[in-house]
Amino acid sequence: MPGKYIKIVTFLSLIVIVAIQGSWLAHTYRLIETELLQVGNRLFPQAVVDEAKTRLDRLSDTQGEDITLSFSTNFDYQREIDQTLFEYLTILANDYADSVYHSSISLPLADSIFTVRLAQEGYQAQVKCQLVDSLGAPLQEEDASAWHHPFKTLRTNPVYLNREHTQAVRATILNPYWIAFRQMGVLLVATALLLVFVAGCIVYQVRIIIRQNRIARLRQDFTYAMIHDMKTPITTISMTGHTLESGLLDRNPELKKQYFAILHEESAHLLGLSEKILTIAKLEQSRLKLAQEPVSLPTLFDELTQKYRVQTDKEVTLETHCPDSLLVTADAEYLKEALGNLIDNSLKYSDERVTIRLSAEEQNRHILIRVWDNGWGIPLKQQKHIFEKFDRGGLEYKKEKKVSGFGLGLNFVYKVITAMGGSVSVNSIEGKFSEFTLTLPAPNKKL
């Protein structure tokens, strides 16, 4: 499956998981909210009766009367006593307070008692009581803003205070969300951790799948490129060997010598490719030991320029900028091979006229070696992948150009330079230039 569809399926799967978990949490919240409302409707009538009893006790003490009200409100009126009888008890207590003491319900006292009742049940709630008429319109309230709370509130059933049912009191629980969240605290944390863990596992698996698909595709491309690229030298070697074996060139020593030169060149080409693949494998397994010795960069640059001026058929301008006697700590042969790969890429990924500039300088006890060319350049999105094995960034946008190679050159450069204790970086603008910078230790730097 293409990487784009894998990402889409993964994204949809995460959405489904989040939706299922969210639906479950929402259902759990509604259950807690329903339970809280049921507890509130059960406890609030008791709180109203407690308020009347407390108010009457205070009034009798103030008036110097010896009146003792001894009835219990610690019962569940929905189970132990008929609701009508309980409402009658509430109305009786309030009518008595009103007729004898001209005292009506104290909303702050009702708030306090109801809050204590809820706390005894394990609900730390903020409540506000309100006096309403038979239609629910407010007659008296402590804080009007509480009834226009910006967040959701829960309202208990009204408790009537007179026989005509023209006055009732009801309570509002202002913070049901926090109550539910406190009860769901462990559940929410566990759900969040589970979602993060599942999402992380899915993303990790998708990255592995995409990487495996990419590696498989790169291997297929490598196999095709290797067969295609090796077919020509193998065919040439086979035909040249057959011609030499036939004896047809025995009478023409000069032509025979050219054929032997062709055999040597093509054999060296195949051997060099095999050694490059073997070197990369050894570096990955940390089995290759590189020499660390002073190398003269001016001498190395001269050897490279002479070699590639002869080998290329393009109109190439090779420039060198290097201080005399500048040394670098490296393995001479592998450094030469790495720089040769960069120059070879400059020749491959460019038009018929190309300028290549080799330069070196010392900065902060390190030697910076730069290989610059005015070739095709490398797209920004591909620059982070070009040092990977089998990657060939130059062919992604120049498909009409048939460029030989297996995508091992830059990976070889990266592996070799890092094995020498250095680093490799690239700076390129598509269609304008490419510049590779090799940073290596100076000769007297301790490794």
Automatic annotation (TrEMBL):
It is an enzyme of class 2 (transferase). The keyword Chloroplast does not apply. It holds the Pfam family HisKA. It comes from the Bacteria. Residues 225-444 form the Histidine kinase domain. Keywords: Kinase, Membrane, Phosphoprotein, Transferase, Transmembrane, Transmembrane helix, Two-component regulatory system. CDD domains: HATPase, HisKA. Its EC number is 2.7.13.3. SMART domains: HATPase_c, HisKA. One of its GO terms (molecular function) is phosphorelay sensor kinase activity. The chain crosses the membrane at residues 184-210. InterPro entries: HATPase_C_sf, HATPase_dom, His_kinase_dom, HisK_dim/P_dom, HisK_dim/P_sf, Sensor_HK_Regulatory, Sig_transdc_His_kin-like_C. It catalyses: ATP + protein L-histidine = ADP + protein N-phospho-L-histidine. This is histidine kinase. It comes from Caecibacteroides pullorum. The lineage of its organism: Bacteria, Pseudomonadati, Bacteroidota, Bacteroidia, Bacteroidales.
